[in-house]
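Lay summary. Proteins are chains of building blocks that fold into shapes, and those shapes determine what they do. In this project we predict the shape from the chain. Here is one chain we studied, written as its sequence of building blocks.
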Amino acid sequence: MSTDAVLQKKRLTTMLAIDAVCFVLAGAAIVGHVSFGIGWLLPAFLLLVAAGLAAQIWFVLGWMRAVKTEEGTAS
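And here is the predicted shape, written in a compact code that computers can read:
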């Protein structure tokens, strides 16, 4: 496997781990906010959703950069 592929696999694994943690914590935060009326859990929920989205954007940007580099070396 090339070094780019290894890096992308590591990046994918990291993104999936971050998304899984954010998903579980965001679910707990929204349940706590709605069911128990804990006000500070709504901003926590929004921050967790944003963190999960940021992890996905980080992965896609890294993937695009790797493809761009690969196209540049193929020419």
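What the prediction tells us: Residues 66 and 72 are 10 Å apart (CA to CA).
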